[in-house]
């Protein structure tokens, strides 16, 4: 079985290599686009949040959240205090920070494998600045549509977290004064960790943009199918292409919400890379994205009709 799997991977890699040689100008252009997205979109929206997340985890932010709020949220989702930390930080940072923070908590022995698998299902949040600014204002030229997409995206995660909550709450592990570094060490480690993660994001972003460009070029796809391919593989370019299609705003809102909730295979690969060499399973993340894609589409339709 592994032999056939290896042969398939080798064949696909060789085909990809040949296509890159043949379409070298297209690849050059695609890589430049990837660099532009990484520098002007991803680094500004993710880098500071990655550093902040690591520092807050090091200094046990969960200990300073009001007890009543912490109790209510932990009870609502039946997760531990550390699981709640991942949930809250993922809301602020944007994907793939949920996998990144889950891995960090797991490595620190603050959550179990079972909770790590569960937390991946409903903590896939896009960065709010990306939705409101990049998608709402720049792509769709309508801030209200950005708000609708943000609401449907966040609410879908909340609903999935409540519906799929375990019957018994995950136990808390003591984290008070546990291996807290000084601020200098914490900041330095956070920067290194953030740079490593951003490098990983850039690599997977570039690869999937190259693959989508080659597929579109090889099969001469129209603008609608091109948008779909790009959206499935790498959402930023898919969302950009969606914004220029001749579609009603409600359809652009629904499709945007669904694409963000699925995340694109580029994000999926980043998640796999972040949890590699652990017993944490990717299938739980995939399960959550399929649920969220459908649910966020329905919610965006409902919220759109309520607001507009």
Walk me through this protein's architecture:
The protein is mainly α and 308 residues long. It contains 14 helices and no strands. Helix 4 (81-93) runs antiparallel to helix 5. The longest helix has 37 residues, at 183-219. It is globular and about 60 Å long. The protein starts with a helix and ends with a helix. 42% of the residues are buried.
Defining key terms:
single chain, 308 residues
Question: Strand percentage, roughly?
Answer: under 5%
Spatial separation of the terminal alpha carbons: 54 Å
Low-confidence stretches: none
CA radius of gyration is 20 Å
Count of β-strands: 0
How do the SSEs run, as a string of H and E?
HHHHHHHHHHHHHH
Structural class: mainly alpha
Describe the main β-sheet briefly: none
In one word, what is the shape? globular
Number of helices: 14
User: Which range best describes the helical content: under 10%, 10-25%, 25-40%, 40-55%, 55-70% or over 70%?
Assistant: over 70%
Mean of all residue-level pLDDT scores = 90
């Amino acid at each position: 079985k592994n032999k056939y799997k290896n042969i398939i991977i080798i064949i696909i890699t060789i085909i990809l290599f040949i296509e890159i040689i043949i379409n070298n100008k297209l690849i050059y252009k695609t890589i430049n686009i990837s660099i532009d997205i990484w520098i002007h979109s991803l680094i500004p929206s993710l880098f500071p949040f990655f550093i902040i997340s690591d520092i807050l985890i090091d200094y046990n932010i969960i200990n300073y959240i009001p007890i009543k709020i912490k109790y209510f949220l932990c009870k609502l989702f039946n997760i531990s205090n550390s699981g709640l930390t991942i949930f809250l930080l993922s809301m602020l940072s944007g994907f793939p920070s949920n996998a990144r923070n889950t891995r960090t908590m797991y490595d620190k022995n603050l959550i179990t494998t079972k909770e790590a698998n569960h937390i991946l299902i409903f903590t896939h949040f896009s960065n709010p600045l990306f939705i409101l600014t990049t998608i709402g204002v720049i792509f769709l030229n309508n801030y209200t549509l950005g708000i609708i997409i943000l609401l449907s995206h966040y609410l879908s995660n909340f609903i999935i977290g409540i519906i799929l909550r375990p019957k018994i709450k995950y136990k808390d592990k003591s984290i008070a004064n546990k291996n807290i570094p000084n601020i200098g060490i914490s900041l330095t480690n956070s920067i290194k960790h953030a740079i490593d993660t951003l490098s990983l994001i850039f690599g997977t972003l570039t690869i999937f943009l190259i693959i989508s460009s080659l597929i579109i070029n090889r099969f001469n796809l129209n603008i609608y199918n091109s948008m779909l391919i790009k959206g499935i593989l790498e959402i930023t370019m898919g969302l950009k292409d969606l914004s220029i299609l001749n579609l009603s705003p409600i359809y652009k809102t629904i499709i945007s919400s669904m694409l963000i909730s699925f995340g694109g295979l580029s994000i999926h690969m980043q998640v796999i890379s972040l949890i590699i060499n652990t017993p944490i399973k990717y299938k739980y993340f995939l399960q959550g994205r399929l649920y969220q894609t459908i649910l966020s589409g329905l919610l965006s339709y409902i919220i759109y009709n309520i607001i507009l």
